[in-house]
Design a protein that fits this description.
InterPro entries: DNA/RNA_pol_sf, RT_dom. By secondary structure, the chain is of the alpha+beta class. Helix content is 34%, strand content 20%. The chain has 2 domains: 48-101, no CATH class; 106-358, no CATH class. The strands form 5 sheets. Strands 5, 6, 8, 9 and 10 form a 5-stranded mixed sheet that branches. The protein has a 4-stranded antiparallel sheet with strand order 11-12-7-13.
């Protein structure tokens, strides 16, 4: 049995994989959803059964709504992949219709969430479980198509902060740590006093305000049609919780980016991207939502006063963006090469109070 695992490289660098590697055959461009960038319409070549014949496709074209098109043949689509028949572009048609009509099928926005124990704390405490979210494979394939083009737009226009190291190609936790260590060594070599705040957001991905997110998309040059598609991406999202063989009732999701999705992490990076610019009095290093704030000075007392005044900007940003700080997991550290003398002994505080919270 011969496998077709050829990868066709296109000018748009879309490399969507589908069943045994059959993927993009060629591309077409429609009206530009971004201010200076296009979503690319693709033709995917896949094997389908004769259950979907020419009459089916002609009838599908009569439906105006992508939701109607999807509902028309979604049951038969589940039987397609392993059957042999003439090739067609049914998946590509669905993707293209979603882009043209800025509408995503609701089935693609339904997740199954399984609680996974973190292996610490009481098994009776819900906070000791992590939700593992699973979305339909077609939804992930469609999101990958959008993700590649959105990240290209962000990179080409240099929108994402250089201090962000999470979910970005050629960046990692190690690259973030390298930059933090470099800052520490610089402070020590200049014999200054450094103050580092390691900040933890509370359920950051789950608390993204979608209305504020849309405002930020406009700020970054997303056009009306691009925003409409991403608005629909958030619309009517639901999830079920599954424990063993028991499935809960559906619950609508009003906040946050979808867990387990391809687009979710990227959309979160866009949401918090302005944090670095807003905290201009700090050097900021991020790995997704894990944030390190760095400040330095020659005098400890002045440094702490400056830190207390500057940290108000962080509180303001968090309140506006409706993200809470997990103060119990937020830590403080002083570093210096300054030598203590009898005349000038440095006593570092064991904690600093921030917004009525003691940070140690």
């Amino acid at each position: 049995m011969n496998k077709t695992n050829k990868i066709k490289t296109t000018e748009t660098l879309i490399d969507l994989f589908l069943h045994n590697g059959d993927l993009v055959d060629d591309t077409k461009v429609v009206e530009c959803p971004f201010s200076d960038h296009c979503f690319i319409l693709c033709n995917l070549t896949i094997k389908i059964s004769s259950l979907l014949d020419e009459d089916n496709f002609r009838e599908m074209k009569n439906f105006k709504s992508i939701e109607d098109k999807w509902n028309y043949f979604k049951d038969t689509l589940l039987k397609i992949i392993d059957n042999v028949a003439p090739t067609t572009t049914v998946i590509a048609q669905l993707f293209n219709y979603s882009i043209i009509f800025v509408e995503i099928p609701n089935d693609w926005k339904t997740a199954i969430v399984t609680p996974l124990y973190k292996n610490k704390g009481s098994t009776e405490d819900i906070n000791n479980y992590r939700g593992i979210s699973v979305l339909p494979p077609l939804a992930k394939l469609f999101e990958k198509l959008l993700h590649k083009q959105i990240i290209a737009y962000l990179n080409n226009n240099k929108i994402l902060s250089n201090d962000q190291h999470g979910f970005i190609a050629n960046h990692s936790c190690e690259s973030a740590l390298h930059e933090i260590i470099t800052e520490i060594n610089t402070i020590k070599s200049k014999r200054l006093i450094g103050l580092l705040l390691f900040k933890d957001f509370k359920k950051a991905f789950d608390t993204v305000d979608q209305k504020l997110f849309i405002l930020k998309l406009r700020k970054y040059g997303f056009s009306d049609s691009a925003i409409s598609l991403l608005l629909n991406y958030f619309l009517n999202r639901t999830q079920y919780v599954k424990i063993d063989d028991v499935l809960s009732d559906a619950k609508h999701i009003e906040l946050g980016v979808p867990q387990g999705s391809v687009l979710g992490p990227l959309l979160f990076l866009i949401y918090i991207n302005d944090l670095v610019e807003f905290l201009s009095n700090f050097k900021v290093k991020l790995f997704a939502d894990d944030t390190t704030l760095i400040k330095s000075g020659n005098n400890l007392s002045d440094l702490i006063d400056d830190f207390r005044n500057s940290i108000k900007q962080l509180i303001t940003w968090c309140k506006f963006n409706r993200i809470d700080i997990n103060w119990s997991k937020t830590k403080l550290m002083f570093i210096s090469n300054k030598k203590n003398t009898n005349l000038n002994k440095i006593e570092y505080p064991t904690h600093i109070e921030i917004d009525s919270n003691l940070i140690r």
